[in-house]
Structure formats: C-alpha cells, structure tokens
Amino acid sequence: MMIDEVRWTEFLKGYVVKDCTIGFEEGRLGFLLYEELEEGASLENGFKIRILSVKLSNDMDKRFFSMSANGLGVGARLASAWAPQNEEFVAVGIGRETYSYKPKAYKGREETIPFEGRKLSADAYHEFDAAITKTVRVGCTVFAVGVPFRIFERMDAQRWKEHDDIAIPPEIGSSDRETMMDAVTNSTFQDLAGTSPQDMYAVGGEGTVWRRQGEAWKRMKFPGDLSLHTVAVEPNGTTYI
User: Fold this and answer.
1) N or C terminus: which one in the chain shows less Cβ crowding within 10 Å?
2) Per its UniProt entry, which superkingdom is the organism in (predicted)?
3) Strand blocks (E) in the chain
4) Which residues in 131-156 are b (16+ Cβ under 10 Å) and which e?
5) Where are the domains of the chain?
C-alpha cells in the first residue's frame, strides 16, 4: 500500500493532481497538487498549491514530504533532475516562477528564471517577456520551454542557462497587435524530448520543429503547418510528433 488514510487526509485530501513525475532516484515520486475548489469558486481569490515527494522505500510515517508552492499559479508543471545532475524536483510556472526541492539541501521558492529583452534588429529594440509552457526532463537534465521560442536548461546551484541561438521572430515586436499576437502563438514551444541534452527536439506552433545536435539548434522541415503539442523519442532515436 502506497498511502494510508492518515497520510491521505494529511497530504492529498482536498487536492487534485495537476502533474507528476518519476523522482530523482529509484522509488521516488513527485506530485504537483492543486487545491480542489468548489464549483463556481473564483481563481482570483487564490488557491493552494503543493509539491509532494514520496519515497516508497521509507516507512509510512516517513514516506511523504509536502511543501507549499502557492506562487506558481495556473499552468505550472513538475519535473525531476537525476544524478549526476542535481537530484531534485523542479516546478516552473507560466511566469518563470520556480520552486525546487532537494532533500537536506534546499526547498521552496527560488529566483525566477532570468530573461532579458532582446534586440530584434540592428535599429529596433522591443521589451517583451518570456512565458513557460512546459517543464520536462531529458536524460538527467530539466528544461523549461515556452514563448517566444525559448528553452532554458537547469544547471547546478539552482541556476538556468538560456539556449539563445534560436532566433526570436521580429514580428514579436510589431506595433500591430494582431501581427504581434499571431507571432506569439506561432513562436511557442509546447514540448521538448530527446535521447540526451545533446540530441533533442522542440516542437510548437505552425509545424515548428527544431533539433539540437551537439551544441547547435537547427530548424527542421515539417510537412504542414499544424500546431504541434507533443514529441517523444525512442532510445534508438525514432521520433514521434
């Protein structure tokens, strides 16, 4: 039995599972829990969020660890880094807000994933933000992906590195709102997968497929302009979108 009534009442009652992940070691599971609101309740009043760690090898009274993650908001996702990386749970929200948990090392909210404005051309500079749509693990490493065509790699010491060699479409800086919004929609990465951090695929709007081999990203041809939402890669490299 993974959980008893006492622990269910303490950790899970009144919550729904938003996301889950296999943890950073064998027998470890992670869950992202959202408070279950009554029908008609407004999100504007806030709701509770928890990250729950489960270590199945422990006795029931020491099996569960829960921490508050209320700052994540709607749309957060959970992933885990494995040795020889950081051995941690990482949850990232749409606004790049980040919570992490590494036993006996750190837990709770940390600095937001850094992002600065970019020059879109030699004579134009436009301030815009980056939003995260998904947090995933590739190999032993956690990545956060989103818009506009942004990929952030989780490093040691609770740091992030941006993969900034993927160009940001200049239409993001358009003064025409419709043009700008179309650019946002079409430059959103929805998923990332691969056999290792040196061989990955990122997919998104309008048939967008980028592949990283080694240290460089390159756009791939795709037969159509469908919005792409998921990608999976077999150990032999066969890729499904």
Assistant:
1) N
2) Bacteria
3) 15-22, 28-35, 49-55, 64-68, 77-81, 88-92, 98-102, 106-110, 118-121, 124-126, 131-138, 141-147, 150-154, 160-162, 189-196, 199-204, 208-213, 216-220, 232-233, 239-240
4) bbbbbbbbbbbbbbbbbbbbbbebee
5) 113-240
Residue carrying the six token digits 């693990």? 137
Tokens 């929805």, residue?
A: 190
SS3 127: coil
User: Reduced to 3 states, what is the DSSP secondary structure of residue 145?
Assistant: strand
User: Which tokens sit at 32?
Assistant: 């992202």
Count of other CB atoms within 10 angstroms of residue 39: 4
What is 17-86 written as a DSSP string?
A: EEEEEE-SSTTEEEEEEEE-PPTT--GGG---EEEEEEETTS-GGGSEEEEE-GGG-TT-EEEEE-TTS-
pLDDT at 118: 59
Query: Over 80: is that where the pLDDT of 45 sits?
Result: no
Confidence band, pLDDT 50/70/90 cuts, at residue 163? very high
